Amino acid sequence: MHVGLLSRRKDIGTLLATHIAEFLAELPSIRDGRAEGVHNARVASRRLRELLPLVRDRERLSQAESLIAQATRQLGTVRDLDVMIGLLDRKAAMVPAAALAVASARRTLTGRLIHEQRALIKALEQLELERLDASRQPHIIARSTSPFRWHAPWERTLRERVGRRAEQLHDAIAHATGVYFPNRLHSVRIAVKKLRYAVEAAAHLGAWSRPRLLKDLRQIQAGLGDLHDAEILRQRVSDLIDVNVPAQETTALIAALGADISALHESYLRRRDRLHLIAEVCGRDAGHAAASRHTRALRAAS
């Protein structure tokens, strides 16, 4: 669930309470083993982790920040297995020549998923996440009365985060080059994700007003996420398949995943200049002067 942008601006206290409620609301779904609950909880946890550094009483919220970080890691393990199983399900219909390989890999992953779901539920119970409710007390929240500006204490902190992450994204794109390097492109994905959640927080709080760029960031992040998921499955798939499965089936499945990766990488390259521009705009809006290679396009987007 997306919190409304400028038309529904919230102060930090209200927004923090909203994301805490979103996170806690997904716990019953996680306990029932639903992939959607894991995904939604991870999104809410990412949003919380962007907001918590902005609050005034850091000491009182440090425990909440630690709980959220631990929960995010636990959720990530289950999410990765869910995604790989979903990928295999799609390949089962698209690559009949790899039917046995797909079934074997899916069986292995399903067994691991059940184990990790149990571990996740136990870990979340031990974290006692209901203690997050204490973070919703309004007297520990720094509030702003001036939307669309960068001068309240929390806004300065957020501006610095946006600017720093915009610069990190520039660097990651340059380092990735136009040739496919999985680890380098993964770094681009992480940089996009961090910038996305920072500017999303600024937009929700009324301190940033470029919804189109935020939409593009989300879409590019999703594409890079699909690429990363396909790459991880390709790297692991041989170890997931029973030795009795014909080798040509495993080869067919790996080839199909490779074709997906190539197509997704081409899609990224087509949007790479747009991603550079987004980083430039975000850096400029945050008052963070980053080296620009698209100055004229930047002016046109202003």
**CATH homologous superfamily assignment:** CHAD domain
CATH topology: CHAD domain
Overall 3D form: flat
Q: Could you say how many structural domains there are in total? A: 1
From the coordinates shown, what is the CATH architecture? Alpha solenoid
Instruction: Give the integer mean of the pLDDT values.
Output: 84
- CATH C-level: Mainly Alpha
Structural class: mainly alpha
Q: What's the Cα radius of gyration?
A: 21 Å
- The helix tally amounts to 11
Main β sheet profile:
none
Distance separating the two termini = 29 Å
Number of strands: 0
Uncertain runs with pLDDT below 50, 5 residues or more? 1-8, 135-151, 289-302
Beta fraction: under 5%
Question: How would you describe the overall organization of this protein?
Answer:
The chain is mainly alpha-helical. The protein has a single domain (6-301), classed as CHAD domain (Alpha solenoid), CATH 1.40.20.10. The protein has eleven helices and no strands. It has helices at 12-25, 27-31, 35-51, 58-94, 99-127, 153-176, 182-204, 211-240, 247-270, 272-285, 295-301. The two termini are 29 Å apart. The model is unreliable at 1-8, 135-151 and 289-302 (pLDDT under 50).
Nutshell version of this structure?
The protein is 74% helix and 0% strand.
Highlighted features:
single chain, 302 residues, mainly alpha, CHAD domain, 11 helices, disordered N terminus, disordered C terminus
